[in-house]
Write a structure and sequence with these properties.
elongated; 2 domains; transmembrane; mainly alpha; 5-bromo-4-chloroindolyl phosphate hydrolysis protein; transmembrane helix; membrane
């Protein structure tokens, strides 16, 4: 029984350490935290992992003092883990706010994908992976509504009507409907305003990429609205 418990603790402790390193590396590589912050974050999780890994060895002693120490270690580990989870949620909340920032460079007139969509999509996937969507539902919804409007407005060559933030979407605004509405004449009008004029099929792919980006955001919105109804 003691060996089984020890093995479980080793697996759990190792899992926590690996997940924390992976999460920290993702934040570091995406330039959302500095090297110092990465070290502090992973070190905190690593300490929790070590406590859990070696807790079974402390339990093997029958001395009363050690038994008390084990309870204290476990209590402290649970408290620290809860605090780290809360810190992780707050980091995600901060990253969501920054995800609306624009780089400040001059984007291509050909591109029909808002530069913030890709970064937000990666962030949303990580929030889902760490099961933080419920806690951050309101924050995600605010950012998503802005990006959804902006990406929709990138495709005015199809629907001819811009939307303002706060305006509701309906079935006519679905990505499937935009695909149906897209005609070759629209692509020709799009390319005619650009110098030098791009190839028709290259231009069409650019527009389809814009619809695909919009479809990703639209799917997130549908999923988020469904979750809101369940809360």
């Amino acid at each position: 029984m003691g060996l089984i418990l020890k093995n479980k603790n080793c697996v759990l402790g190792s899992l926590i350490s690996l997940i924390s390193i992976g999460f920290g590396l993702w934040l570091l590589l995406s330039k959302n935290i500095s090297g110092t912050e990465f070290v502090a974050l992973t070190l905190g999780f690593a300490i929790v992992g070590l406590i859990i890994t070696f807790s079974s060895e402390v339990q093997e002693f029958s001395i009363a003092g050690n038994a008390v120490k084990l309870r204290e270690l476990r209590s402290e580990a649970v408290k620290t883990l809860d605090e780290l989870k809360q810190a992780r949620t707050e980091i995600f909340r901060l990253l969501l706010t920054h995800s609306l920032e624009i780089s400040g460079g001059f984007g291509s007139s050909l591109c029909k994908v808002d530069e913030r969509v890709t970064k937000f999509s990666r962030l949303y996937n990580q929030i889902e992976r760490f099961d933080c969507v419920k806690e951050l539902h309101s924050d995600i919804d605010k950012v998503l509504n802005v990006l959804l409007i902006c990406q929709y407005n990138e495709l005015t060559l199809i629907h001819q009507l811009s939307k303002q933030v706060g305006v509701n979407f309906n079935e006519l605004d679905s990505p499937q409907n935009l695909n149906i509405k897209l005609k070759d004449e629209m692509i020709n009008q799009f390319t005619s305003r650009i110098t030098p004029q791009p190839d028709f099929y290259d231009a069409k792919k650019i527009v389809l990429d814009g619809i695909e980006a919009y479809a990703k955001l639209y799917a997130m919105k549908v999923k988020l609205d469904k979750l809101e109804n369940e809360l």
